[in-house]
Design a protein that fits this description.
Length: 127
């Protein structure tokens, strides 16, 4: 399965395929952002399984570097997956996820249905 682009609540979304090489550095983030922009997307969805496991160890700096690229290029990011076990094991990661989810640039969500709810709320809030 390859990446797909679609509209959801007036937001153009670029969804990375669940299969594929692990995204493990800021250049990978820039490559995804470039693909998203080429498809007119303003929000990227990445399945958590596509991220290098080291991304969730904040001391490596991988997550911070990748997230910073999305913020710099003004492309929103939703990482989709089950983070409960990882967050349980790392208070720092749990705090990072909580802080990200308070904003509107980076979200860690359980599934696409949760993304749809967030976008619907954002659309209603801006009306």
């Amino acid at each position: 399965m390859s990446a797909k682009t679609y509209d959801l609540d007036a937001v153009r979304i670029f969804e990375c395929a669940a299969e594929g090489p692990a995204l493990s550095n800021s250049q990978h983030a820039v490559d995804v952002i470039g693909e998203a922009r080429a498809n007119g997307a303003t929000l990227v969805v990445i399945p958590a399984a596509r991220l290098d496991p080291g991304s969730f160890k904040l001391r490596t700096g991988i997550a911070g570097d990748m997230v910073q690229k999305f913020v710099t290029y003004r492309v929103r990011l939703a990482i989709i997956g089950d983070f409960s076990e990882l967050a349980f094991k790392s208070e720092t990661l749990r705090d990072f996820i909580d802080e990200a989810n308070r904003g509107d640039a980076i979200w860690f969500l359980a599934g696409l249905d949760e993304l749809e709810k967030r976008l619907a709320l954002a659309v209603r809030g801006s009306s």
